[in-house]
């Protein structure tokens, strides 16, 4: 109970819950729309989704400041690749939140002369760049962990290593694939924050890919991806030790 109270007292925690609700409504709408007699339920889900999306914009108004602070912190990362990827990703996050704020200003009627479609595409583009850079950082971190796991495995097997006889090319390719998948599994299992961050960024990528027309998806795929990403975000907010740290 204390964990839940602490979670809901945080702006990020409430935003994650609203986001999970929003994408759950989207997913349910997609599943129920083809069924006859579900028109009223679908309309209620659509209204709830719109209301939750509007409410989330209030939580995101201060995110520009948080993104600027994250940019300042990432500049001081010791490793070059994460420093470059995270700094550029956070710069794009700043621009995305600025665009998002402009869209909010238009939606509440404070400025009617704003081109909604243009700002929406700008927001989607910079969000897309942010996620690509974040995924690049995740892949780099994963490669580092896999390399370390391979070295540890080689040291353990050094005393038992013998060159096997009678290997075909197919056997070697199969062994390489099995070793790669095993290292991947062990690396992600040993580092849950890296797994959560990778899954979250990959699922988030589906929305801007659809908005920019790079890869069109239906509401079901976007809703499912957003829900999985939201659950990963809830875990990170509820348990800060699950957040991927900057080295």
TrEMBL record:
GO cellular component, one term: peroxisomal membrane
Coiled coil, from the record: none
Regions that span the bilayer: 219-239
Taxonomic lineage of the native organism: Eukaryota, Metazoa, Chordata, Craniata, Vertebrata
Keyword Transmembrane helix assigned: yes
InterPro entries from the UniProt entry: PEX11
One Pfam family in the UniProt entry: PEX11
Keyword Transmembrane helix: yes
Keyword terms: Membrane, Peroxisome, Peroxisome biogenesis, Transmembrane, Transmembrane helix
Main location: membrane
Subcellular location(s) of the protein: Peroxisome membrane
Name of the protein this chain belongs to: Peroxisomal membrane protein 11A
Source organism of this protein record: Gulo gulo (Wolverine)
PANTHER family attached to this UniProt entry: PEROXISOMAL BIOGENESIS FACTOR 11, PEROXISOMAL MEMBRANE PROTEIN 11A
GO biological process, one term: peroxisome fission
